[in-house]
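Appendix C. Worked example: Susd and RagB outer membrane lipoprotein
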Amino acid sequence: MKNILKITLYSVLLVVGLVSCQSDLTSLNEDPKHPSVLPSDNLLATAQFQSSYYMDTPSVNFNNYRFFTQQWAETQYPQESQYDLVTRNQPRNHFNRMYVYSLNNIKQAKINLEKEVNTPEVKANKLAILEIEEIFVWENVVDTYGDVPYSDAFKITDGVFSPKYDDAKIIYVDLINRLNNVVTKINLTANSYEKSDLVYFGNMSKWMKFANSLKLRMAMNLADEDPVLSKSTAESAIAAGVISSDLEAYKFKYDGSTFTNPVFDNLETGRDDFVPSELVINTMKSLSDPRMNVWFTKVNGVYKGGVFGDLNDPYTDYSQLSSYFRSSTTSSNLLSYAEVAFLKAEAAARGYSAGDTAANLYNLAVTASMNENGVDPISTTTYLAAHPYNASNWKQSIGVQAWIAMFNRGFACWNFTRRLDAPTLVNPPKSNLSSVPFRMPYSDQEYVLNGANVTAAANKIGGDKATTKLFWDKF
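Step 2, the predicted output written as structure tokens:
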């Protein structure tokens, strides 16, 4: 029988981010071409890749966001679309990718940056990038799980091996405060990370707009839970300047060799059973949506979606995702211009000062999505005329259009469906759950390695179930 050494996740973090402390004697053996301390540049690039790839991946082994929003269906192996989150350990896998490979690298980059030679202005900008990137990952973690280790996380050197779970709203408020603080530290005339920043390549104006847009997204998630904080936060974000074009969107750019797009990896070199769901196809057909021609193939001259959660028919019997999604170099667009425009439209619909009317911002958002997907202006105008903004049922109006626009952007789409409850998602007959998922359960490893704290967190939120709603998901 093998002896198994159990190491906590938080001990692993220490190993992953290990920095050697060498005496004067051992330093004589240092190889300057292979440093023992990784430059912050490398750590930033690694964190950006890991977070972007694994937030965006459609792999059944990770986040499953596309199944939570019922936009993709499976033909041969429907377990994941039946909300089996146990067999493949998706909660554990996503948790580890975000903490170990993303947040930990950013934390270590901040430490290593202090040892690097930079002017004060450049150092401030580099630290701002690391801070905004870290907040971006934290938002994903909180919006996926709810209460999580935050204030005690990454304190292994302080002897904290069993970090407590912090209240999700307290984390949210702290993240918003951190965003408010970090944008004041940005110097638009100074340099920063360049080649190692694989999203904005050191463009601090874009980082500032991304920070404000991230703040807007968090503000809108708070709308039903804390309307006062939501309104003030959203209005300040919009006033300060959010993403206003596709060129400013947060996109991780894949080169097709060192880095390849995760959808490509799964569609072209992985599984042949992912198809657009019947709900997506039927909804878009009922609206005569021109994006269907870009996104999907036809079967015998018609679009045919897969039955969500209950399908064993051949993959070739259904419409498939077109070549539009099958490029190894397609960027992961994790905070798009279209998403920001829909958030502004929702803000205006809720009575916030968003810079324009809800109707105009709705038109802008739909147009942004059409433009992103190469739809011609005439078709866009026709579509908007047929499906104008409906003020009397704005949640349905914005919710359905945002759900369509966020196709293949699972995490962003999940935020809209949880917050606006549109379109209506029906739990599949063979589901492993009592309803559609509202959160990801905690990692199973936490019950072995941090049992007392994760159990306390589970009890506090009303049970560690995928059907337990997040604090901001009120309806």
